[in-house]
Amino acid sequence: MARSTGRGPSRREVLKHAGAAGTIAAIGAPAILSSAALGQSAFNWKRFAGQKIDVLYVKNSRSELLQKAEKEFEDLTGIKVSSEAVPEQQQRQKVAIEFSSGKPSFDVVALSLHVNKRQAAKGKWLTDLRPFLADKSLTAPDYDFDDVGVAGRNFGTDFDGTIITLPKFVDYFILYYNKELFQKKGVAYPTSFEEMVAAAAKLHDPAAGVAGIVNRGVKNANVVVWTTLMLGHDQETVSPKGELLTLSDGAIAAAALYKELNSKYAPPGVVGFNWNECQTTFAQGRAAMWIDGIGFAPPLEDSTKSRIVGKVGYGVMPKGPKAHHTAIFGDGMGIASTSTKKEAAYLYCQWATNKANQLKMLLAGAGSPARNSPLMNTEAISKSKFGKEYFDCLLGSAKIGRPGLPVIAPVTEFRDVFGIALTNMIGGADPRTELAKATEQFKPVLEKSEKG
Predict the structure, then answer these.
(1) What average pLDDT does the chain have?
(2) DSSP states of 4-61 as a string?
(3) Above 80 in pLDDT, residue 17?
(4) What is the pairing mode between strands 80-86 and 108-112?
(5) 8-state DSSP, 112
(6) How confident is the model over 37-46, as pLDDT tens digits?
(7) pLDDT, average across residues 107-112
(8) In a 3-state reduction of DSSP, which class is residue 307?
(9) d(CA 295, CA 328)
(10) Measuring CA to CA, which residue among 264, 257, 259, 299 is closest to residue 278?
(11) Share of the chain above pLDDT 90, in %
(12) Residue 368 backbone class (left: φ over 0; alpha: ψ -120 to 50; beta: rest)
């Protein structure tokens, strides 16, 4: 469906099409293909040998795996790759700034779709990949796009049906727990929010240097913990009409729970904690529980970085008072719309998200692949350093996942504004009062973005 105006789709259109992921494979590609593709029939990895492409990644365990394997791609295709991995926040800023300039320095980008998807749609940052997927001379016979799960397709598809990225990663928020600490205190794994609070209280032992729970406390990063708790109240942050729901009963209750967990049972200084500080605290055995993405697991099972190897529990998020959901986030490999080497870039995106590399990601514990097939490879999984509980948690989380952030352009501003409110709550501020101030502050930002 072509846009009739110069702006991106309205929020009503966004929500209307958000559930259409299951039919993406059937969406027809535009009739006009690249000139290089016309007249071609046989797929050939070497077709664009001699070209050079630039790739921009977020610095994490997933990009590390792909960067280490790049020679494999170069030998396969004859295409030279120059890649850069930048820390998360800086990468997102770099992406926005360079696309806004109209002259991005990269051909391929790993896009954080839970943050930049709406911006990418409105700014027409990325190339529509439907023509490439439909062209048998450009897509390897064994690529199998149908193998990509619904969550990955949701993230990788624009709201008018345009496929803007090949899905690579879908992260599920889980509850990490220290089995040894639970056993010592005779605490069972919590199955509800109420039981999670009770477990945190019982396991909290400041004298022994152990916190009942650790979560992100620093502004911006902490918002995803709050929204995860909101999902347990069957509550979103923004309505289909673009109205803020951040003063709903569910939003306030989730904020009150966030405050209770982090003001009573978290380590000292948690207001400055992002995921990495939480990860270190948990890995050193100084916290009994931790709510965060399953993609942060690898260092916990690395004896050079963790004191709790073999003691880590991986649990599906407990049920909330009204629903059982967990937050999901995702990224994918996209091609800059300004790239002059789109076909070569597409081969790279294809390679980076193929079945073999997705399986490597899973077995390395670097998170959940967007594809389904790696999760069904029982032989490979049986040889993984991650036990059955890890994979059971991943599969269980996949069944209850919902987006952890609103699909809006000013996601960063949303996280900044409400993140400050949450940080203030840890210091003792009233949840309702803080959310009211944040809602009032953010409302005009959202309205302006939807009109722009």
Answers:
(1) 90
(2) SSSS---HHHHHHHHTGGGGGGGSPPPSPPPTTTTT--S--TTTTTT-EEEEEEESSH
(3) no
(4) unpaired
(5) E
(6) 444 569 999 9
(7) 97
(8) coil
(9) 11
(10) 299
(11) 75
(12) beta
Q: 56 and 87 in contact (C-beta within 8 Å)? A: no
Cβ count near 392 (within 10 Å) = 13
**Look-up: residue for tokens 């269980």?**
396
d(CA 451, CA 164) in angstroms, rounded, equals: 23
Phi/psi of residue 205, nearest 5 degrees: -145, 75
The strand pair at 289-293 and 166-178 is best described as antiparallel
Mean pLDDT, residues 438-452 taken together: 91
Are 199 and 187 a contacting pair, CB within 8 Å? yes
Whose structure tokens read 């501003």? Answer: 413
Q: Is 253 helix (H, G, I), strand (E, B) or coil?
A: helix
CB 85 within 8 A of CB 54: no
Write phi, then psi, for 317 (nearest 5 degrees).
Answer: -50, 135
Instruction: State the burial class of residue 411 (Cβ atoms within 10 Å of its Cβ: 0-12, 13-18, 19+).
Output: buried
Query: Position of tokens 């916990």?
Result: 300
H or E element in which residue 176 lies:
strand 166-178
Give 375-406 pLDDT, tens digit per residue. Answer: 889 888 888 888 889 989 988 998 898 889 99
First to last CA, the chain: 20
Token pair recorded at residue 209: 């240097």
For 350, the token pair is: 């294809």
Q: At 331, is the secondary structure helix, strand, or coil?
A: strand
Structural contact between residues 72 and 42, judged by C-beta atoms closer than 8 angstroms: no
- For 189-251, the DSSP string reads PP-BHHHHHHHHHHH-BGGGTBBS-B---STTTTHHHHHHHHHTTT--SB-TTS-B-TTSHHH
Q: How many CB atoms lie within 10 A of CB 70?
A: 17
Per-residue pLDDT, averaged over 334-351, amounts to: 98
**Sign of CA pseudo-dihedral 10, 12, 14, 16:** negative
User: Where are the extended beta strands (E) located within 242-311?
Assistant: 289-293
Whether 65 and 364 have beta carbons less than 8 Å apart is answered as yes
